[in-house]
Structure formats: structure tokens, C-alpha cells
Amino acid sequence: xxxxxxxxxxxxxxxxxxxxxxxxxxxxxxxxxxxxxxxxxxxxxxxxxxxxxxxxxxxxxxxxxxxxxxxxxxxxxxxxxxxxxxxxxxxxxxxxxxxxxxxxxxxxxxxxxxxxxxxxxxxxxxxxxxxxxxxxxxxxxxxxxxxxxxxxxxxxxxxxxxxxxxxxxxxxxxxxxxxxxxxxxxxxxxxxxxxxxxxxxxxxxxxxxx
Length: 210
Description:
By secondary structure, the chain is mainly alpha-helical. It is 74% helix and 5% strand. The protein has helices spanning 5-25, 33-36, 38-54, 61-85, 91-114, 135-151, 156-175, 180-191, 194-209, and strands spanning 118-122, 125-129. Strand 1 and strand 2 form a beta hairpin. Helix 1 packs antiparallel against helix 3 (38-54), helix 1 packs parallel to helix 9 (194-209) and helix 4 crosses helix 6 (135-151). It is globular, with a radius of gyration of 17 Å. The mean pLDDT is 89.
């Protein structure tokens, strides 16, 4: 992913298709649906980036749509979805990443509403520019909301997902610092395929309990 329009489109379509399976597996557990739908959302996100490649970057609708999903939407979606799926004993501590996600999403949404966001094709990667205030604080809040909620979930499958996403964040920052957001989102989209196994395991546990 993020190496070309074709790669993004192919990967995004495949990940979204797996996301449909994940949602179907979680259909009998409504509280699991937001998290099970994450591969579907991230797959669609890669398809949006394929459109961005074809428009040559810039500030068009595909750029804005990509940024809205990557920034405020995921900052709030992930911690809220983890909280929905969490066991009762974990929910209190998950309010912390949810609060961080809500605050971060508000800042990012305001930035997107008041500042132009642009994308630049850089060889086989895409760089995004928004000009955020207090970038370090916003990034910290974003990581606490997304990675932090997974690590604090108390669910073995979600913790594994969180560890992989955290490792991917470090690798992408080290290798593609200026294209960090794009490459990390692509990595997270691939890792989200683990949620299909998570949804299947949850369904099996429910059936056994019944």
C-alpha cells in the first residue's frame, strides 16, 4: 500500500472485503460491530488514497476525505469502538483514551475546517501537510487514543493488534518521517485484518457460553 494507485486500490479492496467478513462475524454481538468494522473503514481509506494518487495529490476532495478519516475520525472511532467491545472491568480505564481521542479529534476537525490540507506524491509514497498547532501534543493524544486504547483493553487479541500498530508507527516514523501518516495508515490497515480472527474468536466464545 501507498506505493502506487494500483497497490492502494488492490490492497484497499482486499482489506475492505475482509472487513465485510469481520462485520458478519460480529453481527450477533452489536457491541463488537464498531471494532469489527475497522478493516472495512481502513480498506475504504486505502481506496480513497488510490483516488488521491490518480488526481496527482494536491488539495482536492480525495485529499480532504483521506485526512478526515485518518485524523479526527480514527482518533475518536478506535477508542470508542474498543470501549464498546471491552469487558465491564476494563471500561473505566478506557475512558482515558476515549477522552484523549475526543479532544484530539476536536482539534484535528477544527484544523481541517480552518486550514488547507495538501498531499504531495513523493516517488512511491505520499506526504500530507496540514500545519497543526502543538503538533507533538496532538500526536501524543492521537497515539494515546488509538494505540493506548488497544493496549489497555485487556483483550489478548486487541493487545496484540495494539503492539503491532505501535511497532509499525515506530518503523514508519524511522523510515518515512515526512510520509509517516500515509505509511502508518497503510500498515495499520494490514494489521487490522487480525480483527477478523478476533471477531471469529468472540463469536465462538459466545456460542460456547450459550
